[in-house]
TrEMBL record:
Pfam families: Hist_deacetyl (PF00850)
GO molecular function, one term: histone deacetylase activity
Keyword Glycosyltransferase belongs to the record: no
Protein name as annotated: Acetoin utilization protein AcuC
Keywords assigned: Acetoin catabolism
Pathway assigned in UniProt: Ketone degradation; acetoin degradation
UniProt-listed GO biological process terms: acetoin catabolic process; epigenetic regulation of gene expression
Residue intervals of the Histone deacetylase domain: 24-318
Entry-linked CDD domains: HDAC_AcuC_like
Species this protein is from: Plantactinospora soyae
Length: 396
């Protein structure tokens, strides 16, 4: 690691919108509207904020995570009308023109974010177009072709990182990142998600704790459908800070999918934009406490394209670049006009808040637990002893 700048790198270029699966829930308009909202609110013009245009990840970087034959398949698929295999050509992962190039560019953007932070060019870095956490070494999955968080983590390890923490707050289990580093004790993966009993990808149970030699390196908190801000934040604070403090990461990488929101059409958690904002503040505080501020943040899922994602990720960008946006702030009129132009069928939010109370009761192992508390205890029992921690001690 080099001496560190206090600034923030935001990796962005319009070309990132080319990761476009067509008539599909993962619509790049959500990223376009995020950047437009952040720009309109002045977040991207703050002192110390530097916008960096990405370059595509090369095959060497991608092959740290993905098999060479899979890279060949991604390149070849758009030119072969009879192509099948590797998870491509499915409803979740349709084949599209320029698939390799646009996917490599998303991975390159997260690589640039990670390198900027590790090399001391910025304290924090964000790629809201990234977070494609389901892609596997030889298979596309869950709207994801190349696993950009894993590619970036692999680069950090190659640059000398000895302890990288990855925290995933997407509503879906961060299965690809977990699998890729399941046997690597240098990488701690923590995923808070809706229970795999109810939601894709069907993994992420508490007993998934890492391969032999890396026991305790995977952490999964599977929350029941209907969990709202208070339960989610209680679960986060009952697990994530303690485990990160035990692991002592040098850098924090996060996947900040906004699909945990109550309006998201593909899942059934009930968070608000205010609860999501609270999670970003907590992640920044942990990076400041444990990693000298080194934080690489990516986007992820989120399918309420106008109503939720732009506000949530603008809060993320604001938290990463300095002063959080006041939840009571109005969305600017020029942004509302753009959102109506892009998606006239969607309700355009007038304010940066859902007017939610984000207070929560800290977890306690006593009394009659509710469904969230049972999942907290299951996760703590599965993984805390592997870090030398007492799962029943609420003080840890």
């Amino acid at each position: 690691m080099s001496a560190m700048s206090d600034g923030t790198v935001v990796v962005w270029d319009q070309s990132l919108l080319a990761y476009d699966l067509g008539d599909h829930p993962l619509d790049p308009v959500r990223v376009e509207l995020t950047i437009a909202l952040a720009r309109s609110l002045g977040v991207l013009d703050r002192p110390g904020v530097r916008l960096v245009a990405p370059t595509p990840a090369d095959d060497t970087a991608l092959a740290r995570v993905h098999r060479p034959d899979y890279l060949d398949a991604v390149r070849a698929a758009p030119n072969d009308p009879l192509f099948s295999g590797y998870g491509l050509g499915t409803p979740d992962n349709p084949i599209f023109d320029g698939m390799h190039e646009s996917s490599a560019l998303v991975a390159g953007a997260t690589l640039a974010a990670a390198e900027a932070v590790w090399r001391g060019e910025a304290r924090r870095a964000v790629n809201v177009a990234g977070g494609l956490h389901h892609a596997m070494p030889s298979r596309a999955a869950g709207f994801c072709v190349y696993n950009d968080p894993a590619v970036a983590i692999a680069r950090l390890l190659d640059l000398g990182a000895e302890r990288v923490a990855y925290v995933d707050v997407d509503v879906h289990h961060g299965d690809g990142v977990q699998q890729i580093f399941y046997d690597d004790p240098r990488v701690l993966t923590i995923s808070l998600h809706e229970t795999p009993l109810a939601l894709f990808p069907g993994t992420g149970f508490p007993d998934e704790t890492g391969a032999p030699g890396a026991e305790g390196s995977a952490v999964n908190l599977a929350l029941p459908p209907g969990t709202g801000d208070a339960g989610w934040l209680r679960a986060f604070h009952a697990t994530v800070p303690t485990l990160l403090r035990a692991f002592r990461p040098e850098i924090l990488v996060t996947q900040c999918g906004a699909d945990s929101h109550r309006l998201d059409p593909l899942a059934d958690l009930r968070l608000t934009v205010d609860g999501q904002r609270a999670s970003y503040l907590a992640l920044r505080a942990l990076a400041d406490e444990l990693c000298d501020g080194r934080w690489v943040a990516t986007g992820g899922g989120g399918y309420a394209l106008v109503e939720v994602v732009p506000r949530a990720w603008t809060h993320l960008l604001a938290v990463a670049t300095g002063e959080p946006v006041d939840p009571a702030a109005l969305t600017p009129p020029d942004w509302r006009a753009l959102a109506r132009d892009r998606r006239p069928d969607r309700e355009v939010p007038l304010r940066m808040t859902d007017d939610a109370d984000v207070s929560y009761e800290p977890w306690q192992p006593t009394g009659e637990p509710d469904a969230v508390d049972r999942e907290i205890l299951a996760t703590r029992r599965a993984v805390f002893p592997l870090h030398g921690l007492d799962p029943l001690d609420p003080a840890v």
